[in-house]
Structure formats: C-alpha cells, structure tokens
C-alpha cells in the first residue's frame, strides 16, 4: 500500500530539514507518494493564503502530514501560528502532541528516556478572551484557558495507554493545581479517576515549576508525563535542551481516533538566521518522520530510522541526511 503524504516544508529551514526526512523515509523502501503544499509565512506574504478551508479539505484526504517549520520574521506574531499550525491542530482534532526525550542531561552520567504527552486542542491556546480600550492607559486584556472533561480525559487516557505498553509503566501529571485551582482540579480529578482503571501503572504529580527543576536535576524519574497545552509547550523546549538539543527534538500531533490525518513536525522553529547555511540539524525532522511511519503501521521501518539516529552524526544538513539514509539502507 502506498501512503499518501502531504508535505508542508514551510519557512526558513523547514524545507531543508523536510527534504532530508523524506530522503531517509525513501531509504526504508516504504512506498509513499508526496504532494507539496506551499504554506507558511512566505506564501502568506505572496498572496495572503494562510490555510483556506478548501486547502484544509484537501489535506484531509491524506494519510499523514509532514511539516518542516512555519513562521517568518516579516509576518506579525500569531498570524501563521494561529492561522496555519493551530488551525490544523484544532480542525483535524490532533489532540495529542507526543514528544519523546532521550539522552544524557548536562552533568549526568546516566541517560533518561521519557515522553511528554501534551494536550493539543485546548487550554490557553483556544484563543478565548479579548481586548478592551486597546492602546489606552485603561487597556484590558484577558486570555482564558478552556479545559473540558472530554478533552482532558482523552489526553490522560492516551498517556495511560501509552505507559501500559512501556517498561516502567508510570505516568506523572504536571500542572499548577496550587494556583490554577479550577482547571487544575479538573485535571487532577480526571487523572485520579483514569489512574484507578490502570492499577498496574504507577503515578505521580508535580507542579510545573518543580518539574522544571527535575527536568534538569533528575529527569530519570520520568516515564510518561501528561500535561496541558501551554505547560507542555514550555516543558518540551526544556526537554529538548536537556536531551541533546532542540535539533533532535521530534514531535507528533496525533488524532488517535483517526478521523483525519495526523501531523508530524520537529519541535524547533523555522530558524531564519541559519537558512541556507547547511547548519540545520535534520535529525528532529527525521525522527518526526519515524513517528509518522510508526503511526502508519510501518513499525519495522520506524525502528530502523530511529536506530540510525542513535549514533552521532556530523556535517551539513544534507550530509547528515545522506548519512542517516545510508545507515537506514544498510540496517
Ligand atoms: C510548538 C510551537 C508552537 C506552539 C508555536 C509555533 C505556535 O512552539 O509546537 O511547540 O506553541 O505550540
Ligand atoms: Mn513550543
């Protein structure tokens, strides 16, 4: 079966790292067909298109979406993020953002290996709120956080299902229940109720500020972490920083119900400062593509790609891509 992949290279280094990811996928021998979608900041500046409903309808026809990075310094903040990236996450109901972290944190001699499950369709990301008296001394800005029982529960349930398949079988809830008492309480109660259905799985709770310390000082305590959209966003940059850098941090935006395609993208952004220099590390994009292969049921190919990324690489963007493709072909 040929998997139909929509490719959004996007802006900055996005197209560069995506090309290498596709090179490595090709080396697995898995049959894919790719269709390029010209979307992102550059496209917006060209003709105003961000993500029209008809383009979104096109994207729905694919088995998966591979995305490089979007965002351009010439476009005001939020336009592409909300109009393209978040629109895809919300409209395609990509309610899980799965971000694995493995490596040796600075100063440690023992490797860690954990996965952050970030809720991806709610929280402060929904854009609830507004502005009054803009630009005046009396300006008021509110930015709400939406947390639904359904949304929180399906995310927590996913984390427990994932942990049940892992060796350590442990889930940590990260939130800020001591201050965000309304949403925190909903998360905590739901977590405890779902946990009761998984008696073989261990649990813990960390406030998000404490979790930041543990990410640096004791990341080994974690197996699966489940958290809300904004905490997950911030924590996963830190996760990248203590796990070999943002250049190897991969992510999967998943619709586990499979009512539409899932989207796979590196955690990093478009890095316009290094575009065209060959300095971008394509490993994060390659590992995101490995997750795509796994989600498409190509387990063996996904394993081979991940195995190829274990040993260190060096060189330019395309040299690293070539080397990873060579390892996959040989593996
Ligand atoms: C991420 C990014 C996005 C987010 C931005 C680009 C909207 O930082 O995927 O982590 O905040 O979710
Ligand atoms: Mn982020």
Automatic annotation (TrEMBL):
The keyword rRNA-binding does not apply. Residues 4-324 form the Isopropylmalate dehydrogenase-like domain. Pfam families: Iso_dh (PF00180). Its cofactor is Mn(2+); Mg(2+). NCBIfam families: PRK03437.1. PANTHER family: D-MALATE DEHYDROGENASE [DECARBOXYLATING] (PTHR43275). This is Unannotated protein. It comes from freshwater metagenome.
């Amino acid at each position: 079966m040929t998997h139909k992949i929509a490719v959004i290279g996007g802006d900055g280094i996005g197209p560069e790292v995506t090309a290498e990811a596709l090179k490595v996928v090709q080396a697995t021998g898995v049959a894919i067909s790719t269709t390029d979608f010209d979307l992102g900041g550059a496209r917006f500046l060209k003709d105003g298109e961000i993500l029209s409903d008809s383009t979104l309808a096109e994207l729905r026809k694919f088995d998966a979406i591979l995305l490089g990075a979007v965002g351009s310094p010439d476009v005001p903040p939020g336009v592409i993020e909300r109009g393209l990236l978040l629109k895809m996450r919300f409209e395609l109901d990509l309610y899980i953002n799965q971000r694995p972290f493995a490596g040796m944190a600075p100063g440690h001699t023992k490797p860690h290996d954990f996965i952050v499950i970030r809720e991806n369709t709610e929280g402060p990301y929904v854009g609830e709120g507004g502005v009054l008296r803009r630009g005046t001394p009396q300006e008021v800005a509110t930015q709400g956080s939406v947390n639904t029982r359904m949304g929180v529960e399906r995310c927590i349930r996913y984390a427990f299902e994932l942990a049940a398949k892992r060796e350590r079988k442990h889930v940590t809830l990260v939130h800020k229940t001591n201050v965000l008492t309304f949403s925190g309480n909903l998360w905590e109660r739901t977590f405890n109720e779902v946990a009761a259905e998984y008696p073989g799985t261990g649990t813990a709770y960390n406030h998000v500020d404490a979790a930041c310390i543990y990410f640096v000082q004791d990341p080994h305590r974690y197996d699966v972490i489940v958290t809300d959209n904004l905490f997950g966003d911030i924590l996963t940059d830190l996760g990248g920083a203590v796990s070999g850098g943002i250049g190897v941090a991969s992510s999967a935006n998943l619709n586990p119900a499979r009512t539409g395609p899932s989207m796979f993208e590196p955690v990093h952004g478009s890095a316009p400062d290094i575009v065209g220099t060959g300095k971008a590390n394509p490993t994060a994009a390659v590992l995101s593509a490995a997750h795509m292969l796994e989600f498409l049921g190509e387990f063996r190919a996904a394993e081979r790609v991940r195995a190829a990324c274990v040993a260190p690489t060096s060189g330019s963007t395309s040299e690293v891509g070539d080397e990873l493709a060579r390892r996959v072909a040989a593996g």
